[in-house]
Amino acid sequence: MTAVEARHRVAIAGRVADAVTGEPVPGAAVRLDITPAAVRRAVAAADLVTPAPGRRPDRAVSDADGRFLLMDLPAGSYRLAVDPPGGDGRYGAATASVRVAAGGPAKAEVALPPTALAVTVRGPDGPVAGARVRVRGSGLGATTGADGTCTLAGLQPGPHVAAVEARGLAPATQAVTVARAGATARATVTLSVE
Question: pTM score, two decimals?
Answer without folding.
Answer: 0.77
